[in-house]
Amino acid sequence: MVNHSIQTEISNKVKQGCASGILNSPDLSFSPETDTALLLNYDKDNHVDGKNANKLYLQKKLDLIQNSHAPLLFWPSRLDRVQNGSQLFATILYDVVSKYWDQYMEIVFIADGEFQNTMREIVENFNLKNRVAVCRFDETLWHLSYGASDFILMPSAFEPGCLPQMIGPLYGSLPIAHNTGAIHDTIDQLDIDNNTGNGFLFSQFNSNGLYQAIDEAMAFYCIPRSVKDCQIKRIMEQSYARFNYSITAAYFHQCCMAAGFQSIPFFLKGIDWIVLFYKF
Predict the structure, then answer these.
(1) What letter would DSSP give residue 268?
(2) pLDDT bracket for residue 161 (50, 70, 90)
(3) Model pTM score
(4) Domains observed in the chain
């Protein structure tokens, strides 16, 4: 997606310590404490009650089985054929739902794109209507799904600077994602023993890798409630500290100073993500 000569130039400057990438941050409207799309607002201390209430509310709205214990996976990105890995999930969708049928697994797509009809055909052909909802993009449903879901699906082929994998952990919804691009920079494999990580990653871009990451997420979902809740609370707290405009702005300012600017120049203001070259 990026011209090879530009890739080479950026790579060389990074190796020389002459370039720096700045991650975007979620909009301030993405907070389970204040999000008006949620039925019940919550924070890290009462996320269990909040997510259960929002899950039941979303299930009712989408005609899914209403069960607060059902693991709910949310697809937040466009259902395209190039970037977001739609084809990987389409290949295993029925198998995944079937494997976790007795656990009442549910999957919600709030996304437009050419693969939307494919997902709907799978739902129709395998009679998954009360387990899988495929919806056109809707801003309110999109916000609600973060608050209702347990995991977000991001099997992207590439990600230059995405946001859903940062928004999800703010709401206690953990990413299941391909370890690439901005996902690599923001998501670490969950390690309960060492009390680190915030999601479930796979490195090989194929359906088997995605399936394995989903299995790992489901293994986490089934651990004792007290252990799981402690991890989600930690992830929410760390995400608030890590994914915010203050951190982005501070690093942006630092890069501008390193580039020789005394203040952020007018032609850079308002840019969400940029690579600065400051030593030639």
Answers:
(1) G
(2) confident
(3) 0.86
(4) 4-25+244-277 (no CATH), 47-242 (3.40.50.2000)
